[in-house]
Amino acid sequence: MSTDHVVIIGGGVMGSSLAYWLTRLEPTLAVTVLERDPSYEHASSALSAASIRQQFSTPVNIRISQASIEFLRNVGAELCVDEDHPDIQLREDGYLYLAGTEGMARLRAAHAAQRALGADVALLDRAQLGSNYRWLNAADLALGALGLRGEGWFDGYALLTAFGRKARSQGARYVKAEVCGFDIDAGRVTAVLTAQGSRLPCNHAVNAAGPWSRHIAALAGVDLPVFARRRSVYLISCPTEIKPFPLLIDPSGFWIRPDGKRFIAGFSPFDDPNDAPLTPDYAAFETHLWPLLSHRIPAFEAARLERAWAGYFEMNTFDHNAILGTHRSLANLMFMNGFSGHGMQQSPIIGRALAELILHGRFTSLDLSDLLFARIDDNRPLHEANVIG
Ligand SMILES: Cc1cc2nc3c(=O)[nH]c(=O)nc-3n(C[C@H](O)[C@H](O)[C@H](O)COP(=O)(O)OP(=O)(O)OC[C@H]3O[C@@H](n4cnc5c(N)ncnc54)[C@H](O)[C@@H]3O)c2cc1C
Q: Which among 4, 22, 73, 272 would be 20 to 30 A from 79, CA to CA?
């Protein structure tokens, strides 16, 4: 029987996935999740577009997606509590990456990496794009890459709550509290301190604070290159029915996917300050996004903006990939941060990986060494070509 205590800071999808895996893999472990806002009003996990793709360019990210989609397909059984099978409404309708002539080489290179690992992704030339998607303006396109299996979208909030509920049913304790410091002794965190005045002794502490993880790291004297970058999501209706419609990534940088009978869309802003207030950028819809949408999908000239919201990407400005494991200055403070817009889809496997690091000191199922924190101090960025910033 374990007497260890793991304190997880942040109860979003990452913290809750980890709490689930820890209590599943080691049922006697004491696990406490400290969450300052159980309503998740500003948490990325509640504001996410919650889409999953196999179309990354680095083997580690492709392998995570392959394992994640398996978990998501089985989530009803994996996270069932008292015969209540959660339904995350997973739809595998694919991603369609589009490229003009200048983007062809990159798309082909990523496709080769995906195929080498068995991902089911097909290349489509301009004629195929035009005939498969009659609603698409393919005139300035040269190539598309379509995920045939394992890509699509789901209800991210349902996944978050399912992880939390299952973790609780397995013994994890969720406490409403704001972390404000650490007790540190001889290179180890000995306790986590909260603004409510409690001191929680621990064997491991985990930074799962999403866009706010940089502040948590700073409390322990660690410089974590993760910044909160606002992303607006626009909910749009279009009078013309358009089918089939995968999640589309345009060469101009916008993305769009169906959301029930409507659509959601977004893009990476040019001006991208840290910590912008979480009000959506309505003006950018008119001036930037709508013209691009109407160019690519002429039926969108008659589209209407229904509403918008904004959430933070937890942007890793070093290399836009997950930052996992410990920093060399502290032996038992774990990081699971910096997902830069692809954390929701990675959460099932990242939670399992962190649980393995805590319980066994190494990855035992999927080797995620390429994502360890050490690469930052060693200045070895992981070059992922398919980041949707
Ligand atoms: C608009 C948008 C679209 C996205 N689209 C996708 C997508 O299509 N696919 C995909 O895979 N990912 C997507 N993402 C990214 C994904 O949602 C995130 O990577 C993921 O949700 C991060 O989860 P998290 O648990 O690390 O962070 P969060 O969900 O933000 O959770 C962190 C938690 O930490 C808590 N916290 C912070 N500080 C403290 C403290 N001091 N004390 C206690 N608690 C604290 C916060 O209250 C919060 O609940 C998107 C994100 C956004 C914003």
A: 4
Residues with a CB atom less than 6 Å from ligand 1: 9-15, 34-37, 40, 43-45, 47-51, 178-179, 208-212, 216, 231, 233, 311-314, 339, 341-345
Burial degree of 116 (CB within 10 A; 0-12, 13-18, 19+):
exposed
Determine phi and psi for 102, rounding to 5 degrees.
-70, -20
pLDDT confidence bin for 3, thresholds 50/70/90: low
Mutate to test the pocket of ligand 1, among 17, 48, 163 (most ligand atoms within 8 A of CB): 48
In tens, the pLDDT along 105-141 reads 999 999 999 999 999 999 999 999 999 999 999 999 9
pLDDT value for 305? 98
- Residue that has been written with the tokens 């993880």 in this structure: 213
* Pairing outcome for strands 5-9 and 51-52: unpaired
Q: What's the CA gap between 290 and 287, in Å, rounded? A: 7
pLDDT, tens digit (0-9, with 9 covering 90-100), for 189-219: 999 999 999 999 999 999 999 999 999 999 9
Element at 44 (helix H, strand E): helix 44-47
Residue with tokens 């809750």: 16
